[in-house]
Amino acid sequence: MGRGNKYLFKPEGLSKPEWPDLWLLGISFTLVAFGILVLASVSSSFSLERTGTTFYFLNHQLLFGLLPGLFLGFLAYLLPLEKLKQLSLPFLLFTAVLLLLVFLPFIGGEVKGAYRWIFLGSFSFQPSELLKLTSILYLAALLAAKGEKKKVRQTLLPFLVILGVISILLILQPDISTLGIIGLVGILLYFLSGTPLWHLLLMLGGGVAVLLLLIRLAPYRLSRLAVFFDPMLDPLGKGYQIKQALIGIGSGGLMGVGLGLSFQKFGVLPEPISDSIFAVFAEETGFFGAAFLILLFLLFAWRSFMVAKRIGDPFARLALMGITLWIVLQALVNMGSMTGIFPLAGIPLPFISYGGSALVVELIGLGILLKISRRAS
């Protein structure tokens, strides 16, 4: 075979085996496996009531989430990092096209007042989930390419343009929660790349201004914020979900009411197997079960950043930190919103919540993260 041959999926380090970080691999595997077990427990009786079959939601998650996610995640693991860096802009542009397709009749559609889904027959996909990953990869490539050059034209302006375009696409849907996650991860990535302090302060100020503008344009967001501080202002309306989530978590006590025995998931707590799954899981397994899940995410964050410290390539390091921040921050926001620490965000709990689009993209992110961990020295 000629030396000049090029491969899209060429394994790196053919001269000697290179393995991903085994701690990170073990923690990631535990998170994914635990997520399937949690969904099986939380959704079984709920599925029987809604569909007449015990494992409808679990089977759907396995068929349209886990299996394609593992396959695409493995392909991402095989993809050379230099090729991934080169493809980061095409991937982001492809995602932007998908975000526009949600507004087209017969392809996209309105669900609960928002345009977030693409429908092709029985298949559906949420492009904003993919945007979380592709935006991180492109921002990592952009910041890595600038190196130590911290002039405004070379770093801040292109960075703000990308975030601005992403913001417009998400506001049109609207999907403010996803915008918040991407914006926060983007700002933290910019900070971790070695930004001047005034750049960071400027972006934080701009973020606050955008938030105030969004509240001004849609006053219902202000009422949601008021209910966050006092759920009893509207206990049967905007404060209903957090009230029922807290009741469920409190009912679990230390040991929980038992697997599959949650009361709140039967028509009481909205979105019991997706956005609110942490509250149902805490009700069934109690404080110890909830604490174990939180510990898994903290271990994932700790090990990922330990690996990042040993990576010399700027793109690989920033991409790893970006993927880690996305998964961990989204998990903390989801669990925090169910316990009243944060306002309700309407975002899934990574690896745990029911939803094929989210799980597929999260597994692709894991594949990239494990690939990068091979670069740790």
UniProtKB/TrEMBL annotation:
Entry membrane topology: Multi-pass membrane protein
Pathway: Cell wall biogenesis; peptidoglycan biosynthesis
Subcellular location: Cell membrane
UniProt-listed GO biological process terms: cell division; cell wall organization; peptidoglycan biosynthetic process; regulation of cell shape
Main subcellular location of this protein, as a coarse class: membrane
UniProt xrefs under PROSITE patterns: FTSW_RODA_SPOVE
Gene Ontology, cellular component aspect: cell division site; plasma membrane
The protein's Enzyme Commission number: 2.4.99.28
Pfam family membership, one: FTSW_RODA_SPOVE
PANTHER family: CELL CYCLE PROTEIN (PTHR30474), PEPTIDOGLYCAN GLYCOSYLTRANSFERASE FTSW-RELATED (PTHR30474:SF2)
Record's keyword annotation contains Transmembrane helix: yes
UniProt keyword annotations, A-Z: Cell cycle, Cell division, Cell membrane, Cell shape, Cell wall biogenesis/degradation, Glycosyltransferase, Membrane, Peptidoglycan synthesis, Transferase, Transmembrane, Transmembrane helix
Protein name per its UniProtKB record: Probable peptidoglycan glycosyltransferase FtsW
Domain of life: Bacteria
Transmembrane feature ranges: 21-42, 62-79, 91-109, 157-190, 196-215, 286-306, 318-345, 351-370
The family this protein is said to belong to: Belongs to the SEDS family. FtsW subfamily.
A GO MF label: peptidoglycan glycosyltransferase activity
Reactions performed catalytically: [GlcNAc-(1->4)-Mur2Ac(oyl-L-Ala-gamma-D-Glu-L-Lys-D-Ala-D-Ala)](n)-di-trans,octa-cis-undecaprenyl diphosphate + beta-D-GlcNAc-(1->4)-Mur2Ac(oyl-L-Ala-gamma-D-Glu-L-Lys-D-Ala-D-Ala)-di-trans,octa-cis-undecaprenyl diphosphate = [GlcNAc-(1->4)-Mur2Ac(oyl-L-Ala-gamma-D-Glu-L-Lys-D-Ala-D-Ala)](n+1)-di-trans,octa-cis-undecaprenyl diphosphate + di-trans,octa-cis-undecaprenyl diphosphate + H(+)
Matching InterPro entries: Cell_cycle_FtsW-rel_CS, FtsW, FtsW/RodA
Keyword Transmembrane: yes
